[in-house]
Amino acid sequence: EKEGYAHFMIKEINEQPKGVSETLNRRLNKEGNIELDSIKITKEDLDKIDKVYIVACGTAYHAGLVGKYAIEKYAKIPVICDIASEFRYSDPFIDENTLFIAISQSGETLDTLAALREAKRKGARILSVVNVVGSSVARESHDVFYTWAGPEIAVASTKAYTTQLTAMYMIALHMAITKESMSKEKYDSIIEELKNMPEKIQKILDDYVIAQHLADTQFNNESVFFMGRGLDINAAYEGSLKLKEISYINSFAIAAGELKHGTIALIEDDTLVIALATQDRLYEKMLSNIKEVKARGAYVVAIAKEGNKEIEKSADTVIYIPDTMDELTPILSVVPQQLFSYYMAVARGCDVDKPRNLAKSVTVE
Ligand code: M6R
């Protein structure tokens, strides 16, 4: 039931603090360390694993891209993240020293399931990150990490994504501490910050009028560009997918450094550009990219961390997210993008929960 909300999508967007909190807290023991239920990946297992494949479709794939970043950074194992329908028809380097991670909200996506079976046949250990308990992907995996998002009804995935991100950070942290590739202090500090995420998401949700107002002034656009660098581009891929699938606006996301290699040709007066600039290390670079598109007439909405006031000089509008560690920003930066997409679709009179041509679960090729 929609419990007073106009659509399932906005209800589910608002359920994210709870989903992230459940996903995290159910797996923290009383010492505050991560315990992955029945997942028994030992230090010996991890020492053998020389690469990880993360495979998924759509939003789950976008969560996988962030997972790749976290596993490489924390656990220092190389990761390949692939789209399930591509993985199936490539010649992946899979053997018994590979850990294969499938991410799927429904656990029934056919391409993801087929990729999993192929990896299993080649001897990989299969870990899945799934929301629906007892689904096919879960049943066919060696280990399962359940995201505690609760049922997701809207076709556009929202709370599944933020809980999948939480799961990927936890898996990466667990691998890192087991492999001893991270200090206990660092591990504890990231877990502490993950615990703050529900409250920080809530703060963005409480300010929903910012996204609503933006949508009310921008809903007539027929194309929107998203850009970012580093982890921001992954969150931008997700923001762009949300917008196109429910509002039918032609949108795509590009790595901001790629602008000059083609896409900048499309920028003209009043082109709407959503620029994510949450990564401290890349902040100055993003400011230059914002100036580049502004110089061609773009209307720039920046998403930045609180306190980065300087960006107000370059962007037309700034949406702030609460300050956090750079590597955790996607959990927060996706939220204003979800809200923006939602209000754009509402303003355009679209069928938000059941967009045309799409199904909640893709069980065909
Ligand atoms: O159930 P799954 O997570 O395997 O689904 C994967 C995609 O079909 C799904 O995320 C899709 O991209 C959503 N409509 C995105 O909002």
UniProtKB/TrEMBL annotation:
Boundaries of every SIS domain copy: 42-181, 210-355
EC assignment: 2.6.1.16
Record's catalysed reaction(s): D-fructose 6-phosphate + L-glutamine = D-glucosamine 6-phosphate + L-glutamate
GO CC, any one term: cytosol
Keyword field contains Lipid metabolism: no
Gene Ontology MF term list: carbohydrate derivative binding; glutamine-fructose-6-phosphate transaminase (isomerizing) activity
Presence of keyword Repeat: yes
Keywords: Aminotransferase, Cytoplasm, Glutamine amidotransferase, Repeat, Transferase
Coiled-coil spans in chain: none
Subcellular location: Cytoplasm
GO biological process, one term: fructose 6-phosphate metabolic process
Catalytic machinery residues: K360
Protein role: Catalyzes the first step in hexosamine metabolism, converting fructose-6P into glucosamine-6P using glutamine as a nitrogen source.
Subunit structure: Homodimer.
Protein name: Glutamine--fructose-6-phosphate aminotransferase [isomerizing]
Organism: Maledivibacter halophilus
Gene (UniProt): glmS
